[in-house]
Amino acid sequence: MTTPRIRVPSSVKAGEPFEIRTLIDHPMETGLRHQTGQTVARRMITRFEAQADGALLFTADFRNGTSANPYVAFHARLAQTTTISFLWREEDGREYRAAQQVTVS
What we know:
This protein is mainly β. The chain is built from no helices and ten strands. It is elongated.
């Protein structure tokens, strides 16, 4: 089961940097591993995006060397109360989403 987890403060001060942490439970199989004589099928997340009310905030492209359960941490600044949405996209088109509102004071 693929489960995204995010940690974002519920409130921040306008213009002050704050940390956003994300982790997704995902096997990140490269298609090169064998288990009981069978090749484990390839299953990779290739892109992560974070958007603040539709505007791109952060993006990362993953490659074969990315470990299972990728963890991403980054900093952001906001000027107004915003909903931050997160998207993890697999190479076969499957998507996993999460969102959190951040109140700016």
